[in-house]
Structure formats: C-alpha cells, structure tokens
C-alpha cells in the first residue's frame, strides 16, 4: 500500500514537475540569448490575407503579421505567435496566454470598454457573401426584412467577431464556425444563407481558392470599420504599440505593407479599391496537396507522434498507479482512484483540455500548451487504461503472488518480475485500442494552441478551401500510423503468447 | 492444549518448533493452538479431513498465512506472531527471514508460466539471493537432473505434464537451499498415473536427509516415508507419533474413523 502511494506521487510529480521544469529551462535559455521583452501575439493563422500560412514555406504570414512585426521592431519586442481560433482568442488574452491580438480586431464599444485597443491600422467595410445565384439578399435591409417576415436568414460566423454582431443586429441567425473558410464552405453547402465579413478577406478568398460558387452580394451597411491591435486594459505595451504605429505611419512602412498585400493603402481612411489579385494565385487540388503534404507530415512527426508517445507513457504510469490503488485494500486509496477514473471517463476530453488550458490559470497553475496537452491526455489515458490494467493484474492467479513470495520476493519485485509480464499478455490488446484512440484524440489539440497534424491541415484548408484532398491526406497519415501501431501490437502479442498453450 | 499427548522433546536437533499457533478467518477459528516439533533430517506428515487446518499450518510455516498468535522457529529464526507489528519494515523483515528458511511446493505447482523451466528454478537464487548467474544455473541443472528433468530445462511449463511440472516446483523450492521443505498436497491435483513420479522424488529427498513437512492424502505413502505423523481435526492435533503408531495403531477414535474412511472408502 505504501508502495502504491509512492508510485502515485511519483507519477503525478513526473507529470507536472518534469515538463514544467523543462519549460522553465527553455525560457532561461532564451533569456540568455536575447533580453528583449517577449510579447505573445494571438492570431488565427487561418484568416488570409491577414493571418495565414504561406503555401510554399508554411510560415505564418499576412498583413497583420507584418504589421505586428514592424511594431515589435520599433518597440524593441521579441514576438512569439500563438495560433488559436478567433472564438478562443479573447479568452486567451484574458487568461494571459497571449498579450496582444493581431487579427483584424474591429473596434466596437464593448471591446473599447473591456480591452486596451490601439490606434487603427486598417479601414475596411463589411460585405455580404452568398452562394452564387442567390437572389433577394443584397443589403442588411434585405436580411432585416427576412427576419421581420419570420423567415430569418442564417449567417455563418465565428460567434465572437464583430461581423457576427452585424449579422445578429440585422436579424440573422448565427451558425457558429471556426474561421472564414469554414464559413464559406457552409454557404457553399447551403447550410448557411450568407456570411458577413471584411471585403478584403472575401476578395482574397475568391481570388486564392479560385472558387466561383460564392459571390459578394453587396455591402454590409455603409459604415467603415476600424481594425486595431487589442491588449489587456492598462497594459503599458499599448502605449508603446501606439507610438510605434504612429512612427510606422509617418515613415511610410504601414503604407508599404498594405501596398504589398492590397495594392492600396488600407491603413488610411477612404483608400482606393483593394486589389488582391497580385497576391497568391489559385492552385489546383494537386498543387494544394503537394504543398501541404510535407508540412503536415512534419507536424505528424514532431507533434502528433511524440505527444502520443509521451502521453501514453505517462498515462500508463498513472494507470498502473490507479489500478494498484484500487486493489490495494486501502479504502482511501481505492476511493481516490475510483473517483479519478469516474471523473475522467465521465467527462469529454475536449472539456478536460479546456479546464487544463484555460481553467487552471485562474487558480494560478499556468502550463505551456504542450504541457497542458500532455497533462490532459495522460490523465485521460490513465483513467481509461487503469481499468484495463486492474483487470489484467487481477487475471494473474493468486498462486503466482504466493509462489513469488515463497521464493523470497517482495511486493515490487513480485509485480515487476512475475505479475506484470503475465498481466501484459491480457492488457496488450485493450491497451493498443487506447493508444490508437489517443493518437486520434491529439487532433483536438488545436484548442490548446498546439499545432499538430489536423490543425496543420486546417491551416492549409483555410488557404485553399481544398477540404477533401487536405483532410484526405491527414486521414491517410493517421491511418498509416495506426496500421503501424497494429503491427506492433501483433508482434507484442506473439511475443507474450509464447508461454501459453494453444 | 494440555489434553494433547506429550510433545516429544527428545527428538534431538529440532529444526522446526511451533508453539500455540492460533488462526481465524473471520468467524472461522481454524487453528486452536497448534504445537509442532520437527527434528532435523526427519519427515513429518500432516493428515486429517479437509478443513482440519493442516494446510493452514503448512502455509503458516512459510507465512503465506499469518497466524494470529503463537511462535514459529525454524533453525535459528523465530517469529512471535502475537507481538509482530501489523505492518512496517520490521514486520516485513521478520517475515522474510522466517520465510527464507523454508521451501514451498504447492498443490497447483504455481510455476511462473512466462519463464522456462530453468528460469523458474534460478529466479529465487539469482533475483532474491543474488547468487552469481553461472553458479545458479549449474546448481539448477544439477537439481533438474535430480528430479529427472535435465532435458526439459528450456521448455515452458505449459509444455510439461502435471507430474513434470510438480517436479520443477520441487526443484524451484530446493534451489533456495531451505532448512525445511514444505509440501502442500503435492499430488492431489495430479492424474493417478503421475502421482508415483512425484512421490518417489519426495521419498528420495527424505532419504537424503532433507527435513520435510508434508500434507497429503496418500496415507500409504505417509506411513512408509514419515518419521512422525500428526492427525488433525477441527484445528487441533488429535494424535501424533511415529507412523507405525498413528496410522498402524491409532488410539483416538477420530483418527480411526478418518483412516477407515480414507483407506476403505466403500
């Protein structure tokens, strides 16, 4: 029993302290190399041409990215970028996971009250985008009329954007999506009647995807909207940023960045028409797949697979500890293990990820994205595998413990040399299931801002709209790894079955 | 337990001495103060109906069951169970020391199925007693030869017959170089035609001078091999003495009835 306690403690310490420690070490290392203050920038990465991944280099780029980089250069900051969905972006700012949002945040009174909004660096107008051939929806008044006729239109929007507000105020029902390209896909599918967004984003989408099944129907009102950098209220870096923007405006840098993307200066009011045609050309699906295949494979190799392996290793330790606690005969330990298993199995992994990443900082426990991901996945795997391990240990006859005792072995030695090797034979098939599920569960990690295979596919899709081919490639990658895992399972089973009569 | 016939104190060099063993499983009081003396180099056989406590006594000697009270001494290690702490390092050490004095052979052999025959035999010597591997392997080979299984060293237990498995179990216990060998109904789970090969190994051990305590239903074998026979019923030693007396000419009525049932079941 004491052993079980020790193992539990060790497992948890290992889970929490080790990754945290290594994170600290990395930070120290960086600080030595570069003593500029680090400013963390939240951005979508799936909102071209403002924030997206270049199809060729896969690097995060875009108008907003160039602007914040120019600001950082003036202000003397070192930037790190955190990519998350727009609907998670203000939460991340509140939770101090990021310091500033550079993602075409539109100024409005609510945000003005709650956040520190900088000076305007984009003037734009909203447009209504519909499926080609749609009639009768050209203005906000048309949307309003449909609502008054008790037949409200559906608008696909990220729910926390100002565009969603515009649509809502006009009387549209909001269908929640994670980004612009998903919104466009919903309009094409007919699941939403329209989307309202920045005219630049809409033009860029039409231009780069080469899609002709949606079109700009008209302006969403005649108000010009202003986009700004958003900090937390009272963050002194807001002033530094405003000062830098003023300088950039004065020395022509802002205009230059805008010209590069839009052939006109959107950083001043009443600029000319935006022209995005010189930017990224439309690519065929084959080209899209070719461009994205390597970045996706890279994310599979440096994120998806390592996170799976590390989480499974920790999860197995937690599972063994929980299983031993359950069969320890100690009521307290057993109750703790039971509660843990019940909580993990009784709640969705997605909710667990949100709690670890966004919830824990509220009580002072702030873990890096990777640590959060590994912690949540390990605890999740541990909860499921604990019952497998427990059943496997109990399947070893009591006489085996006794025989181990009579040759002089203690508790741990008996477990290690006699019980676990026999329990492994029973546990391998169900544990393989758990491992395979875990691999696929890593596709949820975008919510903790870890860019793994699926998120990489999303980035590429945002840039091209080629969902079928990109998610197809992702599916093939997952499947190939799973086939490999099944092969390992088969070899393990053969090995462990060698001492059993057939 | 003063109603028990005198404990023979003239057995010379005592190897095992148990006094006043008490054991209950919940409300079931299975040992009512058992005394047991085993002289070095002799064979003692425990007989009695099922539930009489004979297996519990044997398992107590190896501390697979922990008596509620009483003392057990094997060779120079003695444990007083009345004062032994419930748990903790001291209790574990004392139990380990006493356990190391005996080698146990189970009814269901309990060989380690994931280890080969020779790995089963060297597991205790190498992993627990930390003897050099080469030496342990040499000794294991000699032991396997002794039980007639030198050609099975690299097979897994599932590849052996029941009698062969039980003989490996004996070799595994012997490899620990215990001061006393304990056999818990070693032939009860075997097909009748396999019983002989196991009994003959036990007989050889007795003849070689191993100190042995055996629980068995093989009354004829017990009569032949035992220096001392104890008849137990309902947790007490009803009768004890040389086999010729306890089996050949039992004084107690309960012993007589038991032997009659066993030897002449019809």
Automatic annotation (TrEMBL), chain A:
It is found in: Cell membrane. InterPro entries: AA_ABC_transptr_permease_3TM, ArtM/GltK/GlnP/TcyL/YhdX-like, MetI-like, MetI-like_sf, SBP_3_CS, Solute-binding_3/MltF_N. The chain crosses the membrane at residues 300-327, 339-360, 468-488. PROSITE patterns: ABC_TM1, SBP_BACTERIAL_3. The keyword Endoplasmic reticulum does not apply. The keyword Transport applies. Residues 1-25 form the signal peptide. It comes from the Bacteria. Pfam families: BPD_transp_1 (PF00528), SBP_bac_3 (PF00497). Keywords: Amino-acid transport, Cell membrane, Membrane, Signal, Transmembrane, Transmembrane helix, Transport. It is a multi-pass membrane protein. Residues 301-489 form the ABC transmembrane type-1 domain. One of its GO terms (cellular component) is ATP-binding cassette (ABC) transporter complex. One of its GO terms (molecular function) is L-cystine transmembrane transporter activity. Its main location: membrane. Belongs to the bacterial solute-binding protein 3 family. This is ABC transporter substrate-binding protein/permease. It comes from Aeromicrobium ginsengisoli.
